[in-house]
Amino acid sequence: MDNSVVITGYGISCSDSSFISDSLHDNMYVGHVDDKLGEFWDLNQFRRMDNFSKHALLAAKLAQLSSLPHLNTIDSSRLGTIFSTVWGPMVTIDKYMNPVIEKNPLQASPLLFPYTVTNAAVGIVARLLEAKGVSTMLTGCCPLQYSYEILKQNKADIIITGGVDTVNDLFYKETEEDKFRDSFSGSAAIVMERKETALKRGATILGEFCNYETLHCRNLEKLENLGTKSVARLLENLGKNNKQVTKVLNIFDTGDNDEKIHSSLQKILHNNGIIHKMEESFQGISSSLGAQTVLNSIKALHSIMNNKKEFILGFSMLYGGNFNMHIFQGVDH
Q1: Which has the closest alpha carbon to 162: 33, 295, 266, 42?
Q2: In this predicted model, which residue has the larger pLDDT, 120 or 261?
Q3: CB-facing half-sphere around the CA of 280: CA atoms within 13 A
Q4: Mean pLDDT across the stretch 70-93?
Q5: How do beta strands 322-329 and 311-318 pair?
Q6: With 0-12 CB in 10 A as exposed, 13-18 as middle and 19+ as buried, what is 252?
Q7: Is the Cα dihedral 113, 55, 21, 288 positive or negative?
Q8: How far apart are CA 303 and CA 167, in angstroms?
Q9: Vertex 162, ends 159 and 163: CA angle to 5°?
Q10: Whose CA is closest to 261, among 315, 200, 208, 297?
Q11: Which residue ranges form the domains of the chain, and what is each CATH number?
């Protein structure tokens, strides 16, 4: 039995695409999220829903349409939804809490409260897409890795995996350094599934998620040593060598440690004999946003879709010093 994990679709929903490369514009909607949701559902049910949940729902729907256009042909009990967020619905929480702080608790809106709960979004996605399998909202963790483990353990056949955050300027420090930091409001989702399931239903396989390594390192002085060992172990477990890595994609957090992190990543690659393969990074965008890891994966997808021989190492950094390394490769049909 082939328990490989492949990617068969993706979707992006955001209010501003200025920070997303042109190559990612397929299966993406940019603009007022209600306009697009109205094509699939009655908008009355979204009147009080916040943008955090709406973006997650739309990204998941676009991913589903690109991979699973006919939901009635799959076992819904084996279809999961796993999302990740870092900030959560902070804009909604701010809107809810302001009247409480400025006036009194009686001024809080009971209609707004349900959407201050972080996992409300993934619950809405699961309900409206009729996904009755595993459903989880992670905070500050990588949804790709968790979905990969669930699929490898045969606890699901297909998982719509995504990240979502809605952040505005209110949550960035008003300093000279931070004034250039981009605000973000959106979600990205990919469809991960067991290769056996994808082949059986005749899905188009965009690429394979081979494996991952993750490490928690708040001390950047130790990052080079730990990261070097993690990359070496990752390649060894896959039976690959450094010369087979065709490209490296990375995201790293903005802030005081940008140069140190970038320098450490370069040393990690050099120590493993992987040099001159670092592609553009998403500098100037906070990679601690949950959606950024998934966006990075979609970028890798576009590369391996165009070149089936691509074998890509992806770096990402999430909030709190969590470093993730993912391996993607092209798949010949």
Answers
A1: 295
A2: 120
A3: 9
A4: 87
A5: antiparallel
A6: buried
A7: positive
A8: 29
A9: 155
A10: 315
A11: 5-200 (3.40.47.10), 210-329 (3.40.47.10)
Separation of alpha carbons 217 and 260, rounded Å: 13
User: Coil, strand, or helix at residue 126?
Assistant: helix
pLDDT bucket at 156, cuts 50 / 70 / 90: very high
Place of tokens 């804009």: 91
Tokens of 144: 């790709």
Q: How many CA atoms lie within 13 A of 84 on its CB side?
A: 27
| Residues found in the chain | 333
With bands split at pLDDT 50, 70 and 90, how would you rate the model's confidence at 62? Answer: very high
d(CA 78, CA 148): 14
74: tokens are: 């799959």
Output the six-digit token pair for 48.
Answer: 């009080």
327: pLDDT strictly greater than 90:
no
Q: What is the pLDDT of residue 255?
A: 45
Whole-angstrom Cα distance, residue 243 to residue 319? Answer: 31
Which segment, 15-24, 159-168, 269-278, is predicted with the most confidence on average? Answer: 159-168
User: What are 214's two structure tokens?
Assistant: 């993750």
DSSP 257-289: THHHHHHHHHHHHHHTT--S-EEEE-TTS-TTS
Instruction: Tell me if 318 sits within 8 A of 324, measured CB to CB.
Output: yes
Q: How far apart are CA 205 and CA 324, in angstroms?
A: 23
Give backbone dihedrals phi and psi of 227, rounded to 5 degrees, phi first.
-65, -40
CB of 69 closer than 8 Å to CB of 9: no
